[in-house]
Amino acid sequence: MVDLKNMTIDELEKFFVDIGETKYRAKQVFQWIYRGVTNFEEMTDLKIELRKKLNSIAYISSLKIAQKLVSDADETAKYLFLLDDENIVEGVAIKYSYGNTSCISTQVGCNMKCSFCASGIGGKVRNLKASEMVDEVLIMDNDYGKISNIVLMGSGEPFDNYEEVMKFIKIVNNPFGMGVGIRHITISTCGIVPKIYDFANEGLGVNLSISLHAPTDDLRTQLMPINKVYPIKDLIKACKYYIDKTHRRVTFEYSLIKDVNDNYEMSVKLSKLLRGLLCHVNLIPINYVDEIGYKKADNEKIIAFKNTLEKNGITCTVRRELGSDINAACGQLRRKYLAGRVK
Ligand code: SF4
């Protein structure tokens, strides 16, 4: 049995031609899938014989909501999705003035072991299929409200699941499906340098965000072990290549952790590192994670850090704190849910 949700429109066209049908059927079925239909019987513009044929050779996969929490403070909704193999992944839906954003996971767990992140604690279990990532968005679209922006910033390193992530982008961007604009999709990476070059060469126009979190190799390696493999110099070089190739700015994510990377010296070093680069810095007051113990930087430190960057000509924003009452930091809710499930 083949899962039609895991196909781009081109793959679906080939599928229908291979089973002796016209290409046009692909467009019809694609549209049904992205209206949330998972049963061929409901696809009333298909001949009954074709519906029967599809029932015998294909299916349309669908995740289930295992848990949903909505923040009283800001309406941010956190979802736990149950996969076919009983694994659990997280997604978050966030309301902004410019529309709803869904933050999705790309892997079950993560191998990158960033020291501030709950998703890396248990390591990677497996990659998500494109259809599973699509379904995270589709379910939030149906349940939370129209999703107009997607960020791949949940559990998992997107560039460690490169092929499926590229397929996911093609599917959600297709106008016959969800039609999410390419400029409304953002991939966040911890810095897998060779994949940044590959991604630049795709010429897609998707936004690139880099989890930087430290301006020196010593500190970044402590926070993010990937830095041992791809140090800052190589990472910045790859970002320059991406900017030259796409003419698009890169966003650098910098989580401000109390007494770790929030001091004046770090803000000056970060300014020097990024000076002259077409970029934007997103300063993130870190969410507290029980098992890790890092604390959010004090508000005065956050403001001072931002001021130093701006004085040095680096544009930056402080990310609004969202869903702190519902464990909205990456991997937190999943870990709590799994701990409860084994009791
Ligand atoms: S921050 Fe991202 S890359 Fe790092 S461990 Fe967490 S999910 Fe993985």
UniProtKB/TrEMBL annotation:
Its main location: cytoplasm. It comes from the Bacteria. Its EC number is 2.1.1.192. It catalyses: adenosine(2503) in 23S rRNA + 2 reduced [2Fe-2S]-[ferredoxin] + 2 S-adenosyl-L-methionine = 2-methyladenosine(2503) in 23S rRNA + 5'-deoxyadenosine + L-methionine + 2 oxidized [2Fe-2S]-[ferredoxin] + S-adenosyl-L-homocysteine; adenosine(37) in tRNA + 2 reduced [2Fe-2S]-[ferredoxin] + 2 S-adenosyl-L-methionine = 2-methyladenosine(37) in tRNA + 5'-deoxyadenosine + L-methionine + 2 oxidized [2Fe-2S]-[ferredoxin] + S-adenosyl-L-homocysteine. It is found in: Cytoplasm. GO terms for cellular component: cytoplasm. Pfam families: Radical_SAM, RlmN_N. One of its GO terms (molecular function) is metal ion binding. GO terms for biological process: rRNA base methylation; tRNA methylation. The active site is at E90, C330. InterPro entries: Aldolase_TIM, Methyltransferase_A, RlmN_N, RNA_MTrfase_RlmN, rRNA_lsu_MTrfase_RlmN/Cfr, rSAM, rSAM_sf. S-adenosyl-L-methionine binds at G156, E157, S188, S211, L212, H213, N287. [4Fe-4S] cluster binds at C110, C114, C117. It is an enzyme of class 2 (transferase). Keywords: 4Fe-4S, Cytoplasm, Disulfide bond, Iron, Iron-sulfur, Metal-binding, Methyltransferase, rRNA processing, S-adenosyl-L-methionine, Transferase, tRNA processing. Residues 96-325 form the Radical SAM core domain. Its cofactor is [4Fe-4S] cluster. Binds 1 [4Fe-4S] cluster. The cluster is coordinated with 3 cysteines and an exchangeable S-adenosyl-L-methionine. Reaction proceeds by a ping-pong mechanism involving intermediate methylation of a conserved cysteine residue. Specifically methylates position 2 of adenine 2503 in 23S rRNA and position 2 of adenine 37 in tRNAs. PANTHER family: 23S RRNA METHYLTRANSFERASE (PTHR30544), RADICAL SAM CORE DOMAIN-CONTAINING PROTEIN (PTHR30544:SF5). Belongs to the radical SAM superfamily. RlmN family. This is Probable dual-specificity RNA methyltransferase RlmN. It comes from Thermoanaerobacterium thermosaccharolyticum (strain ATCC 7956 / DSM 571 / NCIMB 9385 / NCA 3814 / NCTC 13789 / WDCM 00135 / 2032). The gene is rlmN.
